[in-house]
Amino acid sequence: MTVTVRSLGVALGGRQVLKGVSLDVPAGSWTAIIGPNGAGKSTLLRAVLGLVASHGDIAVAGADLRTFKPRQRARLVAYAPQSPNLPVGMTVFDYTLLGRSPYIPHLGRESARDRTITEEVLDRLDLTDFADRPLDHLSGGERQRVVLARALAQQTSVLLLDEPTTALDIGHQQQVMELVDQLRLSDELTVVTTIHDLTLAGQYADDLVLISAGRVAAAGPPERVLTRDTIEEHFDARVHVTPGPGGRPILSLERP
Ligand SMILES: Nc1ncnc2c1ncn2[C@@H]1O[C@H](COP(=O)(O)OP(=O)(O)OP(=O)(O)O)[C@@H](O)[C@H]1O
């Protein structure tokens, strides 16, 4: 399913946070939204979901999610926010099972299939041993994987992930990115993720969109966006860029 945004604008607290943003994410592809702190990356995801007021055109599989009820939206798009409110005392299993809520009838109970899907997702994210643990008894990285687990349990065709790897060690970063990539290939999932690790973004995404001061500053394949000059201009960082496997850029910081 495609995600298309045209001339998107968002104002927050009386300030224009996104201006004229356009985005084209083909079905089954992975787009990474990059950009400096405060650029508007999370706001862009929230606007696509219809969680913040916006003007401009938004189409997810041809539909404008701003007109959808939450339950209807949750069958089409799964969203893993950067810092979700986690219910104190709820177990990892029950929180992940919440991902099945859009399919459970009102006043009904989850089915055996809902529980099986939840168990499978926990297994794929190395979380089976934590299933009965309350969310507030987890480390930051474990919590982050549980938030992703809930989103994957929704089994939607579009996945929006806000900074899915920030709290993860390098092994779990790889595990999460590989898992998302596998799902993308096997289930034709369309993925949009914000991400700060530019090398990681360049290794997995088909296209990068650089947001800077609320506008699209660059967009295209990783090797076109991740250039030394672009990084210096928008992040005020000096980096060395070398072509890695498949020509995908590897960035390292240059000491002044
Ligand atoms: N509710 C709000 N009211 C006013 N301004 C807001 C609100 N929420 C966010 N902002 C501002 O909007 C801008 C964009 O925020 P956003 O969270 O989208 O940035 P980001 O690119 O995701 O940043 P980061 O990389 O730090 O997570 C920031 O300047 C932020 O301070």
TrEMBL record:
It comes from the Bacteria. SUPFAM superfamilies: P-loop containing nucleoside triphosphate hydrolases (SSF52540). The keyword Transport applies. PROSITE patterns: ABC_TRANSPORTER_1, ABC_TRANSPORTER_2. It comes from Actinomadura darangshiensis. Residues 3-238 form the ABC transporter domain. This is ABC transporter ATP-binding protein. Keywords: ATP-binding, Nucleotide-binding, Translocase, Transport. One of its GO terms (molecular function) is ATP binding. Pfam families: ABC_tran. InterPro entries: AAA+_ATPase (IPR003593), ABC_transporter-like_ATP-bd (IPR003439), ABC_transporter-like_CS (IPR017871), P-loop_NTPase (IPR027417).
